[in-house]
Amino acid sequence: MTSILPSEGEQLTTGWEPGVPAEDSVVRQSVLVHADWATELARRAGRPWRDGDDWAAGYVGETGALTNQVVLKRPVADPGRILGQVAAFYPARVPYLFISAWPTADLSVYGLALVGHPPLMLRPTSTQTDPPTTDLDLRWAATADDLAAAEQVLVDGYPLPELQPYTRGRLYSPAVLAGDARFVVAWEGETPLATAAAFSSRGVTLVENVAVLPAARGRGAGAAVTFAATVADPRQPAVLAASDAGQPLYERLGYLRIERWTVWLRP
C-alpha cells in the first residue's frame, strides 16, 4: 500500500509561500490582485507604498475610508506584529482598510473597527450572460478630465463623505491611466452618473469602486458599468469583493460566491 505521508525531505506547500505562483489558486490570485491594486494607486500618484511578503499597502491620502488599503498576503499567527508594522507605515490618525482573506482575531484592541465579512466573488471566462442594458452612454476614461469625472461619481455616489466636497485628484492621479487600471463612466449627455474600475494583474481582472449617482438608479447603470469592467479583458476571469446587498446583482452578471473575507477599518 502506498503511504500518504510525505517522503523525507519533501517540501509541502501551503499555497501561501512568497514564491508560489499566483495561479496556484483563484483565492491566491484574488489576494494578490487586491494587494497590487492597493499599491498601484499610491505608486502612480508618487505616494508611499509597501509590498512585502506578509502585507502590501498604499498611502494615497490623509482621509477617506477607501483611500488607503492594507492587504494581508498570507495567513499570519500574530496579527499584532503586522499591525505594528502598519502603524509605522501610516501616520497617526490616517484611516486605512485592513483586508484579510482569512478570519482574524479581534483587532479592536488595536483600534480597528470591524467593517464586515464581504463575499469574494468570481466570474469565470466561460460564463455566458447577456450584457445589461442602460439608456446611458458608457465610455472608458481616456483623459485626466474623464478620470476626474469617474472620481467625482465615486466620491458623491458611493458616497465618501470624508472626501466631500469633491476635490480633484485625492483618489485617482492622472498617472494611473498609464498603468493597468481602466475606468468606465456612464454619461447622460455631459453629466457623469455611474462608474467602475477594472484593474488587471496576476491573470485576473479586479472590479473595484462601483458607484452610481441617484439620478441613474433604476436605469441599469450600476449593472452596465460593472459588466463593462468585468469583461474589460475577456481573456481573464474577474473577481470582486461584494457587499451582501450587492450579491444578487453580481450573481445576475454570472459571478459565483467563493468565500468570505474579513475587513477592518482604522477610522
Q: Any overview of this molecule?
A:
The protein has 267 residues and is an alpha+beta fold. It has two domains: 97 residues, no CATH class; 137 residues, Gcn5-related N-acetyltransferase (GNAT) (Aminopeptidase, 3-Layer(aba) Sandwich), CATH 3.40.630.30. The longest helix has 19 residues. 43% of the residues are buried.
Biggest sheet strand order reads 7-8-9-10-11-6-12
How big a fraction of the residues is strand? 25-35%
Q: Mean pLDDT across all residues, rounded?
A: 95
The first-to-last residue Cα distance is: 57 Å
State the major sheet. 7 strands, mixed
Give the % helix.
10-25%
Structural shape: globular
Number of DSSP E strands: 13
- CATH C-level class of the largest domain: Alpha Beta
By CATH, the topology of the largest domain is: Aminopeptidase
Q: Structurally, how many domains make up the residues?
A: 2
Output the structural class: alpha+beta
Given as residue ranges, the uncertain stretches (5+ residues, pLDDT < 50) are none
Output the radius of gyration: 19 Å
